[in-house]
Design a protein that fits this description.
Layout: E1 2-5, E2 8-11, H1 20-25, H2 28-44, H3 60-65, H4 76-96, H5 101-127, H6 132-137, H7 140-161, H8 164-191, H9 223-239, H10 245-263, H11 269-295
Antiparallel strand pairs: 1-2
Helix pairs in contact: 2-7, 4-8, 4-11, 5-11, 7-8, 7-9, 8-9, 8-11, 9-10, 9-11, 10-11
Length: 296
């Protein structure tokens, strides 16, 4: 293509389409988190134990207690099944006996307020071009890569450094993602909420429930966000005491992924909020609570 400027013909340089691999490198969160996690795996280089790096070794009693709930590739599926009992049987039973009502009521109240506001804030992201560059870097594919590469990088680093604590942390993160995605799928199936991107601009953004194109295409809550916060919680609680920067990086990246789901018009703010809360809750109260009982 050519244009005329001051009597001269100036060719316009056409930008080549970005390749998927280059887009991955434009996603600094993926590479930064992967490198940091591999560095943790290399840097600790501690003998095999159940204790966090830099803390006293677990005694014989704690070691024997670890057998009650093994954390390994072989026990990953049984542990996920055990978590389902905690999530769908034990926790509802505790609610029925009057426990945990205050935080649950708080989360429901905030979610309700955000749902009421979704019809006003979602159109902004739908019509804005401010976040085009950000959206290319934090696309749904790139966000998924970042979420799944983080545990893989940590597990690989733990294998190379013979650090069982890093390996177990990576397996716990994978367990948390599986638990969160199961919960996410059930909620999406039951609510079938339409995504902002599927709603035409002239339609009412408040009329979104039981309106997804297919029964598996619901948007409530955000699957990327619930997975990102489940991984971030495992990393933060397993490494946060020893490396104070880990929670800031982990939750910061998880929050960025959550924001990208709104800027991409893939989810409403209420979808993202509930996804973040559920991701944290599943990791903290189901996955890590069980692992603490095993390692104490």
């Amino acid at each position: 293509m050519e244009v005329r400027s001051s009597g001269r013909v100036v060719p316009l340089r056409q930008s080549a389409p970005e390749r998927p691999l280059l887009m991955l490198f434009r996603f600094p969160a993926v590479l930064t988190l992967a490198v940091c996690l591999v560095q943790i795996g290399y840097g600790q280089n501690t003998p095999i134990s159940n204790s966090p790096p830099g803390e006293p070794q677990a005694n014989a009693t704690a070691g024997s207690a670890d057998l009650d709930r093994s954390i390994s590739l072989k026990s990953l599926i049984p542990n996920i099944l055990e978590d389902q009992k905690q999530i769908y049987w034990t926790f509802p039973g505790q609610l029925a006996h009057g426990k945990h009502w205050v935080p649950v009521a708080g989360v429901l109240a905030v979610t309700a307020v955000l749902v009421a506001a979704d019809q006003f804030d979602a159109p902004y992201f739908r019509h804005s071009s401010t976040y085009n560059g950000f959206n290319r870097a934090f696309s749904g594919t790139n966000a998924s890569l970042g979420i799944y590469l983080a545990p893989l990088a940590l597990y690989g680093g733990g294998l190379i450094a013979k650090d069982s604590y890093a390996q177990k942390t990576a397996l716990l993160a994978g367990e948390a993602v599986a638990d969160s995605e199961i919960l996410d799928g059930l909620l999406k199936l039951s609510t079938r909420r339409a995504r902002p991107s599927s709603i035409s601009p002239d339609r009412n953004f408040a009329d979104t429930w039981f309106d997804s194109k297919t029964i598996t295409d619901g948007g409530f809550p955000s699957g990327h966000t619930i997975a990102a916060f489940s991984v971030a919680t495992v990393f933060s609680e397993r490494y946060g005491r020893r490396h104070r920067w880990v929670p800031y990086v982990a939750y910061g990246l998880a929050g960025t992924i959550g924001f990208s789901r709104m800027s991409l018009s893939a989810h409403f703010p209420s979808d993202v909020f509930l996804g973040a809360v559920l991701g944290y809750a599943v990791s903290h109260f189901a996955v890590l609570h069980s692992s603490r009982r095993a390692e104490d």
